[in-house]
Amino acid sequence: MQATAKKWGVSTEELLSRVVEKVAHDPHESIHFWTPKNRVFIDTNVLALIAGNTSLGKSVIKHLNDAGLEAVTFSKCVYELYSLLKGTTSDRRDKKSRNNHPLKDFLQPQINDIGQKLFRKTNLDHKANTYYWFSLCEEWMWSDHFESYEELIEKFCIESDREKSREMLSLQKDFVDWKMALRQAFSEVNQKISENGVTVFHYFEVFSSDWYQFVGFSWEQTFAQDSLLPNEDFELVLASIALQAKAFITSDDNDLIWRGGLSLGLNSPHICFCCPERIKEAIDTDFAFRFYRREKRSE
Question: Whole-angstrom Cα distance, residue 105 to residue 185?
Answer without folding.
Answer: 9
